[in-house]
Amino acid sequence: MQPMTKYHSHGNKSFQGENDILGSNLCSFGALEQAKKGKDPVIRVRNINVPAGRTLDFQGLDGRTIEFHGRVTFGYKEWSGHLIIIKGKNINVKGMPGHLIDGEGHRWWDKCGGNCGKKKPFLIYTQLEHSTVTGLRIKNTPAWCFAINECTNVHYSDIDIDNRDGHTKGGHNTDGFDVHKSRNIRIYNSKVNNQDDCLAINSGWDIVFENNVCEGGHGIAVAVGGYDVNEAKNILIKNCKVIKNNIGVRVKTLLNGKGIVDGVTFDNVELKDISEVGIVIIGNYLNSGPRGEPTGGIPIKNLNINNVRGNVLGNGTNIQINVAPGSPSGWIWKSQVKGGKKNPNCKGTPGNLNNPCNW
Hints:
Layout: E1 7-8, E2 23-26, H1 32-37, E3 42-46, E4 49-50, E5 56-59, E6 65-69, E7 71-74, E8 82-89, E9 92-95, E10 100-102, E11 122-134, E12 137-139, E13 146-149, E14 152-157, E15 160-162, H2 166-169, E16 177-180, E17 182-188, E18 191-193, E19 199-201, E20 204-210, E21 213-215, E22 220-224, E23 231-243, E24 247-254, E25 260-274, E26 277-285, E27 300-301, E28 304-322, E29 332-341
Parallel strand pairs: 2-3, 3-6, 4-7, 5-8, 6-9, 7-10, 8-11, 9-11, 10-12, 11-13, 11-14, 12-15, 13-16, 14-17, 15-18, 16-19, 17-20, 18-21, 19-22, 20-23, 21-23, 22-24, 23-25, 24-26, 25-27, 25-28, 26-28, 28-29
Antiparallel strand pairs: 1-2
């Protein structure tokens, strides 16, 4: 007997509760290429297991909608590729009720992340234009979750990245959203529970991160330097909560790097139970940690800290500033971070501003 196909086209009515939009029901990894060749406006991904070392590759789908239904899982392999790639223009990605993208990251977790140990894949790589990604439910990524790379005019909303199991099972470098060389990006109404940056902007322009909750990780970061483009301009982080992270919010530039950070605003950000430092602004960042005297090759201009408030735990530090004297300019600062300790060694605050470490 011939095996039954798991690719159903043109609005298969065997799935109850669907709307009447024509679409392809993708129920096996092997049917992906056939679905991509079709012209149905909607591809519905249903309960797929992606073979080890393979990518669920959504390219060549301009103008179409990708819906996730049921549970998506992945075979285990130590490799540095991407488990899902979504690339194109005018694409709408939707997570439907009851779905889950489950990375089962505990199979890779070894407390090393991308620094050592097992090779770990990125979960989702996006390179999109004029598109939306909404409603995704993601659990236990092997390491990094979203790569937002060379994207333009894209909204990411109502996304839940749940890596809380990694707190006790060895998760590391489980970044929520990593942004690079992207323009006019908005990430909003989302939650991240992880063991690294909730948001890390390495480079980009006109980026908004709004109404998001970050829990358990390393805070919200603008981290510039060490890439082919080292420029972050017009960044707004607004109406967010950072809960039980080691860092609250930070701007960090690479030691001996070249580039610019201009127009970063943290507005109405609530910090709760931060363990190490509430607000960090440094110019001597290295992957292994801050080191040496800061350099001014990536000046931090027009930084606005507005109503960043909350508490740092007893052994933590409220504010850390260490930038090259004369390199920053145009800062505005209004914060109220309680608890912890004041840092008497803040350096490089621009002349227009009284040192906030002494407030």
